Amino acid sequence: MKIRNTILYILFFALTLVACKSNERKSEANKEMDAFVSALMTKMTIGEKIGQLNLLAGYEDIVTGEARSSAIGSKIADGQVGAILNVRSPEKIRELQRIAVEETRLGIPLIFGLDVIHGYRTTFPIPLALAASFDTAMVRRAARIAAVEATADGICWSFSPMVDLSRDPRWGRIAESAGEDPVLGAYMAQAYVKGYQDNDLKRNNTMMACVKHFALYGASEAGRDYNTVDMSRVRMYNEYFLPYKAGIEAGAGSVMTAFNEVDGIPASGNRWLFTEVLRNEWGFDGFVVTDYTAINEMIEHGVGDLQQVSAMALKAGVDLDMVGEGFLTTLQKSLDEGLVSEDDINHACRRVLEAKYKLGLFDDPYLYINAERAEKEIFTPENNAFARQSAASTFVLLKNDNNLLPLPKKGRIALVGPLANNRLHMAGTWSVAVNHDESVTVLEGFKSLTDGQAEIRYAKGANITDDPALDLNTAVRGKPGIDTSRTPEQLRKEAVELARWSDVVVAVVGEAAEMTGESASRTDLGLPGSQRQLLEALLATGKPVVMVLFTGRPLAIEWESRHIPAILNVWFGGTQAGNAVADAVFGYANPSGKLPATFPRNVGQIPVYYNHKNTGRPLEQGKWFQKFRSNYLDVPNEPLYPFGFGLSYTTFAYGEPKASKTKLNGDEKLTVSINITNTGSRAGEEVVQLYLRDVVASITRPVKELKAFKKVMLQPGESQEVSFTITTEMLSFYNYKLDYAWEPGEFQVMLGGSSDQVKSLTVEWLKP
Ligand code: BGC
Questions:
Q1: What's the rounded mean pLDDT across residues 8-27?
Q2: What average pLDDT score do residues 254-259 get?
Q3: What's the rounded mean pLDDT across residues 395-411?
């Protein structure tokens, strides 16, 4: 015992020493940075300092907002620009950097930012899909690959991760998020930040992350983009803030503001958010950038003219003004009139310069442009192989009657649907660096995988939508999708004939890529009518129909789930989508994704999410309607598919959960475990989910909350004991006074493979 204690003591001492040394090194580096930036700032005029706070958009075809910047080159030369976004050509980046370094008085380099959201030229599945993998190591590696590729082309700052929690699938930007759960969102936020920054921003293949959009953008009313948000602080702190905070704790170098208001003040001018919460409470020491023209948009919000809102943003703690040039054009006047102080400008300028220092740009302004690396490291076969494998791990098998899937590689297969042979829609929204010609279609994936062993024939069958307005509003890079060479009836007829010829029909249907993403809210979450008619016609042939669903959001597919025997939800899978779909359909990959957001039965149920509160009049389990209970007359309360749900080609049996103790005291730890067995005939991965419920507390608590998860691979017949350690940190929450603590009492511990299929036990946890 004595020896053990001595060893533990020495170990503790050694670890403390290492931690102190690394803190010392950090503070040494900080001191050097401070000295460097201070020395530089003494040479700067106020005008040059304000210039550093200006972020302009490049003149490429990437447009992410209404306004465009102009005369960029001359503004850079005049010291009026601190950073640039949306330039994707290394030659142009080099030239703009040259102007900044060689033609300005002080030669301060520029930061180049881009929306590297889910991969660069090698594009990975959309973030909602990546969250469905419940695989943080995979997401971190995808982000790492994105950083390696983007930095070779000169990008050193990514506007990612987007960590806005969203419980409203009408909101198109749910596609960019990790869905509805705070803890899953927090894990994903950390995986992206670590992948991009890799704990060493100075390297030429790491880029700075930007946690966005602070705050609450995903809670816009009615799911309409940019709309009002109104939320209690208790909910902010206990739910919506978690992913942002996790991103900060992972070391994200920057944070972006949100377009919405928070507590009646537009986020981009909200001092409470950026100074009190972000910097003072969470200790964030990076810089804050606005969203695209968000300062100017505060005028429309009705809180002042350009000068007033610009001063308000600066005073709130915002450092860099994206595109709107409010800082550039008004801050000097505001300084003269006493609306802002020189200190306010100095603080912001310092934070921008510090970012440049952290990125190593003062040592080498061209660090991130590397033609040799670009040639060797962008869109490599290895990156694509990883994209293919990771895409398949995000797929969610929603239904599989009689094990219709996977299909054997034989016979006649009718591949139909508007997304079956459609390169433009594979990558999904926010794929600004993708070359669509390089995306693999489902038809190509099927042909190459079956390699002549099955006969694959294709018919389009329907347009994504027959509504010309919707088609135009969602056209990828301006290309309308409606087929004008044939009528909808002709398209359908061809598909039906093909179905009759076939042994099995694979219908590849869903949304256009741009039906989700920014400014892509929908009120109808069903499949567009053209595709529903196609499915009806295909089912009428009596042939077995597999539905492969492309979507950027949870859809209301109740009719489909009732009538179609097998549904595989594949989101938007990136450049390798077609190959990954083929892998899953023919059983080379076993779907292991779980839903990161609830699929509603219809739009009227929204918001519907698993971690809701109880009411005083809850519906009894299993009941549809009870008078004077909280329910609907026309649909059950349960959603169509809940959070955490997803089938596999194999089956898993869960044993009874076990706890190391049922009575605990103080800061003890609880170990809970459950035995899980692969009871099918294929190897497969299962996401084991741990949920907790605080049964009685000083404020109402959700009926269950995800606290941890583990993805395990099991061979047929194999069993594994999966265990989790529960700490009092996991029990803690912000109470009515916003104090963070846990309260003693009874806790329900739930374990299972979906939020609605759990086995539970109860423990009592008291204060000592
Ligand atoms: C979006 C941001 C994005 C920015 C720059 C805005 O419209 O809201 O998420 O990073 O444009 O492209």
A1: 56
A2: 99
A3: 98
State if residue 214 touches ligand 1 by the CB under 6 angstroms criterion.
Answer: no
Atom 4 of ligand 1, residue of closest alpha carbon: 292
Distance, in Å, from the CA atom of 203 to the CA atom of 436, rounded to the nearest integer, reads 30
* Cα-to-centroid distance, 171 and ligand 1 (Å): 15
Instruction: Count CB neighbours of 610 within 10 A.
Output: 24
Q: Which of 22-26, 186-190, 277-281, 297-301 has the lowest mean pLDDT?
A: 22-26
Could you tell me where the beta strands, DSSP code E, fall in 517-645?
545-550, 566-569
> What CATH number does domain 398-580 carry, 3.40.50.1700, 2.60.40.10, 3.40.1710.10, 2.40.10.220?
3.40.50.1700
Residue 514, ligand 1, Cβ within 6 A: no
- What is the radius of gyration, based on Cα positions, of the chain? 27
Q: Find out whether the peptide bond into 480 is cis, omega within 30 degrees of 0.
A: no
Best CA proximity match to 137, nearest among 190, 213, 76: 190
- Which residues are part of the catalytic machinery? 291
| pLDDT value of residue 300 | 98
d(CA 307, CA 330): 5
Percentage of the residues of the chain whose pLDDT score is greater than 70: 96
- Please identify, by atom number, the ligand 1 atom nearest to the C-alpha of residue 160: 10
Computed over every residue of the chain, the mean pLDDT equals 95
Nearest CA to ligand 1 atom 10: 159
Q: How many CB atoms lie within 10 A of CB 716?
A: 13
Mean per-residue pLDDT for 317-342?
98
Nearest CA to ligand 1 atom 2: 291
pLDDT surpasses 90 at 375: yes
Buried b / exposed e across 718-747, counting CB within 10 Å, b at 16+? eebebbbebebebbebbbeeeeeebbbeeb
Ligand 1 atom 12 nearest Cα: 64
Question: Between vectors from CA 203 to CA 120 and to CA 281, what angle results, nearest 5°?
Answer: 85
Cβ–ligand 1 distance for 159 under 6 Å, the answer: yes
User: For ligand 1, is residue 212 a contact (CB within 6 Å)?
Assistant: yes
Residue 14 neighbours by CB under 8 Å, 6+ apart: none
Cα 389 to ligand 1 centre (Å): 29
- What is the distance between the alpha carbons of residues 636 and 620, in angstroms, rounded to a whole number? 11
The contacts of residue 375 (CB under 8 Å, 6+ apart) are none
Ligand 1 pocket member 177 (CB < 6 A): no
The closest alpha carbon to 644, from 758, 753, 556, belongs to: 753
Q: Packing angle between helix 326-336 and helix 294-301, nearest 10 degrees?
A: 70
With contact defined as beta carbons under 8 Å apart, do 756 and 693 qualify?
Answer: no
Domain boundaries, the chain: 398-580, 652-766
The continuous run of DSSP H or E covering 672 comes out as strand 670-678
Confidence check: pLDDT of 1 > 50: no
pLDDT confidence bin for 59, thresholds 50/70/90: low
Helix (H, G, I), strand (E, B) or coil at 436: helix
Contact 602, 560 (CB under 8 A): no
What number does CATH give the domain 652-766?
Answer: 2.60.40.10
